[in-house]
Design brief:
The structure is a homodimer of 240-residue chains.
Chain A: E1 11-15, H1 25-36, E2 42-46, H2 51-54, E3 64-67, E4 70-73, H3 75-85, H4 96-128, H5 134-144, H6 150-153, H7 157-167, H8 169-175, H9 188-203, H10 215-228
Parallel strand pairs in A: 1-2
Antiparallel strand pairs in A: 1-3, 3-4
């Protein structure tokens, strides 16, 4: 991305895969959020194993943004900061009720969809990481899996795909009424969901969706936003 | 409710139970929506079997509102109408994004929660109906149950209660951050959810929630809104 003029200059610490793609559903939310606000950013790619050291232990996860003297982690904190720091740019949240509603949508989405996505793609993420990051990724994630290896955790993943596809039902119903989750225009709820699909597309070796899934038009529309921000020849198709 | 002056006069056709309570999660949304806008309404109670005849077949469900020459069914159409017809009253939807986000919340809530609630309380609704409405309620609902009786449909309902309680998880997480689903103030998402709990409370013979459920504070706060709109000595407790 081209740098912006100094006061608007934002540096975004991202997660990088072996193929150079930026992964992480949370980083993607912020990429879309910055684009929504019309802000360019300088990307700083970090591998899984480099994050803690990059911030002297202050932050353990990306996205992290740097803007002037401010350094901030956690995608929700960053999104809220962007609206405060750039009030003359298009708002991510038109008001407190939209903010609360998107947050509720995220709570549902993270519990019902992101968690299931990790269950299907955990080994793919490992395999897509840079070789030097794989041992760290494996160790840190397997600690949370109660002793299961990534291979054991994902062994029956094809059998779990139908439940994941079913979990999208509310999105499909909504998108039969509106072009975007946010209505006639995309909002942060779209960026949350698009970021998750974009993350999967960065690593997937198992197509997430059936070819005729009605989510396709919205995903295409979403990946095309902001000059094709979601497009990248290195990503995999989401469709069988 | 006291009548308002003529231009604001709204008549609300409601569903009435044998104990005189208004049931229907959809009627309750509109009761809360009218209260939110500071509009009084004249309630017109109808039993299950009276609805079709009351509107000459034009509407088959309540709520129906009558305002001047306008008669309108379907709670979403009514809520949107109220913001158009009373623009100087507090808005139900501050803008199109909030509207879309609440609609997405409703899509999730109706599929994941209302459907499960009906599975637990279908026979209780029948038993709470006026005696003359019960045959109609039974016949119309059993048609949708592929031949099962209401008794068969709800026979294992206690075993299904844990899954229903689990379905509230996103609400609990959200309400650990905000006093209302809508954030610092209640919005139409609160009325959708409160309306469902109020409906269950009107008919329940099986407490929906554990005594220490963290939803309790929000339910109490919600039932207290607008001078205790949700309060009624005839309803049952939602808590074990």
């Amino acid at each position: 991305m081209a740098s912006t003029s100094a006061p608007d200059k934002v540096r975004l610490y991202e997660l990088v895969l072996d193929n150079g793609c930026s992964a992480s559903p949370y980083v993607w939310r912020i990429r879309y959020a910055l684009a929504h606000k019309g802000l360019a950013w300088d990307p700083v790619p970090l591998g899984f194993s480099e994050i803690a050291a990059a911030f002297g232990g202050r932050f353990k996860t990306v996205p992290v943004i740097e803007h002037g003297d401010t350094m901030l982690a956690e995608s929700w904190d960053i999104a809220e900061y962007l609206d405060r720091a750039f009030p003359d740019r298009p708002a991510l949240f038109a008001g407190p009720a939209e903010h609360a509603m998107v947050r509720l949508t995220d709570t549902w989405f993270s519990a019902e969809i992101l968690r299931k996505m990790f269950g299907v793609y955990a080994l793919d993420i490992h395999d897509a990481a840079r070789p030097q990051d794989r041992p760290y990724f494996r160790q840190s994630r397997e600690q949370r899996l109660k002793g299961a290896t990534l291979e054991e955790f994902t062994a029956d993943r094809a059998a779990r795909l139908p439940a994941l596809r079913d979990a999208f039902t509310p999105l499909r119903a909504h998108l039969s009424r509106f072009p975007y989750l946010g209505g006639s225009a995309p909002n942060y709820a779209d960026y949350i969901a698009l970021g998750a699909f974009r993350w999967v597309a960065s690593v997937s070796t198992l197509p997430l969706l059936a070819p005729n899934d009605t989510l396709r038009r919205w995903i295409d529309r979403g990946f095309d936003l902001y000059g094709g921000l979601g497009r990248d020849p290195r990503i995999k198709t989401l469709f069988e």
